[in-house]
């Protein structure tokens, strides 16, 4: 599974509607409204790299209210749950 983190700049008066429209797109796993330099962060999960262009450039960037995007491709995922599981192997 390929994960992309998409930072989304939106029109200020359209944030909730834009977030919901993005969340409804195939390939979008989650959308977060946040404080800071961007208005929304979308987590896109697809099986093939070619699908990223379809989801992000083909659909997400064209949602009404989206002003711009900045996409980051994830190489590896780390989480506390993964670390805890690795260290607890054989300790049952």
Automatic annotation (TrEMBL):
Superkingdom in the source lineage: Bacteria
One function term, GO molecular function aspect: sequence-specific DNA binding
InterPro entries in the record: Dimeric_a/b-barrel, Tscrpt_reg_AsnC/Lrp_C
GO cellular component terms attached to this protein's record: cytosol
Domain Transcription regulator AsnC/Lrp ligand binding, residue spans: 6-76
Pfam annotation, one family: AsnC_trans_reg
Gene Ontology biological process terms in this record: response to amino acid
Protein name: AsnC family protein
